[in-house]
Amino acid sequence: MKKSMTYVLLLFGGLLLLPAFTAEGGGKVKIPKKINSIIQAKCYGCHNTESKNKRPKDKLNWDELTSMPADQQAEKLADIQKVLEKGSMPPDRFLEKQPDMKLTDKETANMKKWAAKMGKRVSK
Ligand code: HEC
User: Fold this and answer.
1) Cβ atoms of residues 17 and 111 within 8 Å
2) Residues 35-65: pLDDT tens digits?
3) What is the pLDDT of residues 60-111, one digit of tens each?
4) How confident is the model at residue 4 (pLDDT cuts 50, 70, 90)?
5) Using CA atoms in the order 28, 61, 82, 103, what is the torsion angle rounded to 10 degrees?
6) How far is CA 108 from each of CA 69, 81, 89, 105, 112, rounded to the nearest angstrom?
């Protein structure tokens, strides 16, 4: 009796965990070299785990993007597309001091294409 109860509990626990694994988006979002070099040069400095500035880190953390659940990845990718569309990143007030950090048209186009493709992939 006791033993069968354990099995039931194990089975039940397993079933509860299952959605957690299937919702895991890890691996779906891939960052190719070409995109990664843009991110490293122009985005990563403010949007990473070590960033001293909490706000950009909370909004987008590149260190976590590839390992978060798919629904959150979809949200982040939509945000990324939005800022690329508006041309609002990096922020203007930062670009005044460091104009060379501005995304070129080609970089913007490449990132947009990537974010759209990944967005579709994670929302499947
Ligand atoms: C100089 C620091 C800095 C750099 C560089 C930077 N960001 Fe940001 N980013 C911020 C800050 C600050 C915020 C928060 C703005 C706010 O809360 O209004 C933010 C917010 C965002 C958001 C969330 C926007 C929203 O509406 O929620 C996205 C997405 C984003 N950044 C993407 C990028 C991308 C892509 C790049 C590179 C092309 C980039 N950032 C480069 C500082 C930076």
Assistant:
1) no
2) 999 999 999 999 999 999 999 999 999 999 9
3) 999 999 999 999 999 999 999 999 999 999 999 999 999 999 999 999 999 9
4) confident
5) -100
6) 25, 10, 10, 5, 6
- Distance separating alpha carbons of residues 124 and 43, to the nearest angstrom: 27
Pair 23, 71: CB distance under 8 Å: yes
Give residues (CB < 6 A) around ligand 1: 42-43, 45-47, 55-56, 59-60, 79-80, 83, 89-91, 94, 103
d(CA 107, CA 105): 5
Distance CA 55, CA 57 (A): 5
Mutate to test the pocket of ligand 1, among 44, 55, 59, 63 (most ligand atoms within 8 A of CB): 59
> In angstroms, rounded to a whole number, what is the distance separating the alpha carbons of residues 103 and 105?
6
Which tokens sit at 17?
A: 């965990």
Query: What is the per-residue burial (b if ≥16 Cβ within 10 Å, else e) of 58-68?
Result: eebbbeebeeb
